[in-house]
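Notebook entry, structure prediction.
Reason for the run: the old model in the group folder had no record of what sequence produced it. Starting over properly, with the input documented here first.
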Amino acid sequence: MNWGHQLKELITRNWREKIISLVLAFLFWFMIKAQDARQALPYTMPAPRIPQPTSIAPPQLTPVIPPPTQAPPQLEATLPPASAAAPAAKTGEAIKGAAGL
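New structure, fully documented this time:
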């Protein structure tokens, strides 16, 4: 066998698999090249979009409670006087009897 015949046999044997692998290799190379070209540009964050008000608030959103024209009245204490709320003081004997001593 000469080298020409071996080369022909090398190319023609399993030619479908060889063509498929060549196509896949080209596609992978093309995808990697496209990603590399896209990554080369510096990425910057886009500016946030803040809507600018174009008109004043509609009348249904205006405050309903009018502002106070005078100071509010002073608060009063709601606790009863100390003399009415305090129970009568017990003597020492009453305390011993209540404790069971």
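Summary: Residues 19 and 25 are 10 Å apart (CA to CA).
The old model has been moved to the deprecated folder.
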